[in-house]
Design brief:
The protein is an alpha/beta fold. It is built from 16 helices and twelve strands. Helices cover 46% and strands 14% of the residues. Helix 7 links the parallel strand 7 and strand 8. It has two domains: 133 residues, Leucine Dehydrogenase, chain A, domain 1 (Rossmann fold); 201 residues, Rossmann fold. It is found in: Cytoplasm. InterPro entries: Aminoacid_DH-like_N_sf, Glu/Leu/Phe/Val/Trp_DH, Glu/Leu/Phe/Val/Trp_DH_C, Glu/Leu/Phe/Val/Trp_DH_dimer, Glu/Leu/Phe/Val_DH_AS, Glu/Phe/Leu/Val/Trp_DH_bac/arc, NAD(P)-bd_dom_sf. Belongs to the Glu/Leu/Phe/Val dehydrogenases family. This is Valine dehydrogenase.
């Protein structure tokens, strides 16, 4: 046994990874495919989660990421009210150099070999066109193009769901679900963030944005010249009079440096894994900052890809994404009743739903 394989096995059987049902290590020498498919739970139905294509430093690192992401999808899908458990896949390698039709087809065959226990979709490093290729080998691929029976880009409903989370936050904190007159800072106005800005402006909010990409800023400011621009995220979180901070770019936005500097009373954004480490949710609560859990409010995308399995209907999906408002309010109520941060309350509700499903 090599050191690498020992590291993978050690990662697989660490108890704190969360008791996954199945982990599949995939390899196709002809195409160079090395992948991990992790199924955390099928209590609520077939596991659903995207495929990440990333140049991990080690196989053990790739396995650890797949396990963590799969577990997170179980919680996200449970709170989104979907008939799906959580799963995730990672393909090891640089998508810019390794990705090929042959590799994606080989990956599709591995997904198909699971017989529907795992349904895949897009994630970091994979796109709609990639899922179209994967779908040639399996019916269990979503996030496809409309021309191939899919729904296409899921960013529209992701942004809509985050907006519903913001409305719920406003209702809980200020007694009114409107964002009119509130100042909202959006960090990252790319695929999801620029749609979120449109919702906020339509609702009468004052918006401040930042992004590392100049073209993303221009897309917003050329359409809405009155939108203010902060130099960077550090400047944005310190903007005076900011009511809501919306991290919509990279994970880890809420950390030991950013939380003490926040001027906003609410954090609600589209980015995944916003809490840099355990304990940050308590730091937010101690500062009186209301945190809308990221995996709850950004579930519009997974709601959309799940609907593809039924034959995509945008209005049906939008109606389901609108329920993120009610789910977020329920989490805030549970947090207040139990005397815990909203992130912990969200976890409890998701775990309760999965436990009840297993007991049926």
């Amino acid at each position: 046994m090599t050191d690498a394989s020992e590291g993978v096995l050690h990662t697989l059987f660490r108890s704190e990874q969360g008791g996954h049902e199945q982990v599949v290590l995939c390899q196709d020498r002809a195409s160079g495919l090395k992948a991990v498919i992790a199924i955390h739970s099928t209590a609520l139905g077939p596991a659903l989660g995207g495929t990440r294509f990333y140049p991990y430093a080690t196989e053990a690192e790739a396995v650890a990421d797949a396990l963590n992401l799969a577990r997170g999808m179980s919680y996200k899908n449970a709170l989104a009210g979907l008939g799906h458990g959580g799963g995730k896949a990672v393909i090891i390698g640089d998508p810019e150099t390794l990705k090929s039709e042959e590799l994606l087809l080989a990956y599709g065959r591995f997904v198909d070999s699971l017989g529907g226990r795992y349904v895949t979709a897009c994630d970091v490093g994979t796109y709609v066109a990639d899922m179209d290729v994967v779908a040639r080998e399996t019916r269990w691929a979503t996030g496809r193009s409309p021309e191939n029976g899919g729904a296409g880009d899921s960013s529209v409903l992701t942004a809509f769901g985050v907006f519903q989370g913001m409305r719920a936050s406003a209702q809980h904190l200020w007694g009114d679900p409107t964002l009119r007159g509130r100042k909202v800072g959006v960090a990252g106005v790319g695929k999801v963030g620029h749609h979120l800005v449109e919702h906020l402006l339509e609702d009468g909010a004052e918006v401040v944005i930042t992004d590392v990409r100049e073209e993303s800023l221009r897309r917003v400011t050329e359409r809405h010249p009155h939108v203010a621009v902060a130099a960077d995220t550090e400047a944005l979180i310190r903007v005076g009079g900011l009511d809501i901070y919306a991290p919509c770019a990279l994970g880890g936005a809420l950390n030991d440096e950013s939380v003490p500097a926040l001027t906003a009373k609410v954090v609600c954004g589209a980015a995944n894994n916003q809490l840099a480490h355990p304990g940050v949710e308590k730091d937010l609560a101690d500062r009186g900052i209301l945190y809308a859990p990221d995996y709850v409010v950004n579930a519009g995308g997974v709601i959309q890809v799940a609907d593809e399995l039924r034959g995509f209907d945008f209005d049906r999906c939008r109606a389901k994404a609108a329920k993120i408002f009610d789910t977020t309010l329920a989490i805030f109520a549970r947090a207040k009743t139990d005397g815990i941060p909203p992130a912990a309350a969200a976890d409890r509700i998701a775990e309760q739903r999965m436990a009840e499903a297993r007991g049926r």
